[in-house]
Amino acid sequence: MKPPAFEYEAPSTVEDAARLLADGGDDAKLLAGGQSLIPLLNLRFAAPSLLIDLNGVLELAHINEAAGELRIGALVRHSAVAGHALVAERHPLLAEALGYVAHPQIRNRGTIGGTTAHSDPAAEVPVVLLMSDARVIAHSTRGQREIAVDDLFVSIFTTSLEPDEIITEVIIPDRHVEPGTITGSSFQEFARRHGDYAIGGGAAIVELDAEGICRNARVGLLGAGMRPEESKAAAAVLENSTLAEDTVREAARVATAEINPLGNVHGDVQYRREVIREMTFRAVMTAANKAKAGTA
Amino acid sequence: MTQISVRVDGASYADDVEPRTLLVHYLREQLGKVGTVVGCDTSNCGACTVHLDGESVKSCTVLAVQADGSEVTTIEGIAEGGELHPMQRAFHEKHGLQCGYCTPGMIMASIDLLKNNPNPSEAEIREGIEGNLCRCTGYVNIVRAVQQAAGEMSSTAGAQA
After folding, report:
1. What residue stretches are annotated with the FAD-binding PCMH-type domain (chain A) (predicted)?
2. Which of A72, A139, A179, B2 has the fewest Cβ atoms within 10 Å of its own Cβ atom?
């Protein structure tokens, strides 16, 4: 047996799951897609007393739109999010980023709620959610509340969820677009092999008006520190410019000037900072070119 | 112990399993389906790839209890009436293997790839099997095998995927 022994419950409703989690004590863990948790169990880096399997909670498996927002149930698999028409139409950056999430088999299991709750600063989905002003719904036996992802991501593998709360839904508002502008976005990531854990990355959304002036920009950084990061300073450099190469280089420099990536055997802090700077540069340039070509 | 009911390669099974039993260990040790192999145990290598309700998954990162009520297809369940699946035959004919350890997972991942994309480019094939490591071949003949199978399966109506 690879994993340590644990008690196992498979509730079919959020209410039951919340009760099990509330009663389960500190060592109870939720199991969604299991693509991070089960390897951790196999390596015996995690030893929960109770696993509460959410895979039978079918009310968490929806994608729908309401009032200008996309509401994605926490249990929706990465492959389903990436392949969904509304995601492709309204949040192409999310669909593009999901292409970097591990491998097809893992995208068939991994869930949007799972990766959000896991709060890995080098994960692809959290940084896109941050750039999209997304929110999550957190459920517990005490009720439910909404949390902006900016308030949710606290640190590496740490969120502001209470121990008895379950993420049940991720809400992504439609982007407000100024009339007469065209939006482009791009996600760029560097890893030793495609699909491996990212060494670093950058993402960008830019909005160009008819004169080619950038009206709005969002710049996100992957693996830049203890949580997914967004650089408002880089966006300020880009906004009201024509996104000329020098300007974009300056924005990438500003975005990464003060970041502190975690160094390890695959790259020290300085190397990673430079990787993230280059990926950010490429993301903005690619996003700008897409906007100019009108291909989102 | 938890009781599960699962269909594997077309046959129904009801078994008691410890919740911590990985699907791959259940398949191999309780059902004797040793065609599915264990590589890394941490979802890196893809050797243990099977289909769970028609989708490729790494069976080292799924618990057997999570397959309760589901349909599992392994490498042992894709030949029909003693006739190799076109993907198996293509791996044989194009010599898409050397030691053969990655082959069951490669074949299951490749079948799922063609289900979603019946006519993939070479780049799409390489991306589609990026979750499966081969340490012998350098992938060249594996890619050729998938290309051959894609050609065959898309030319026969109702290709079995």
Report:
1. 1-177
2. A179
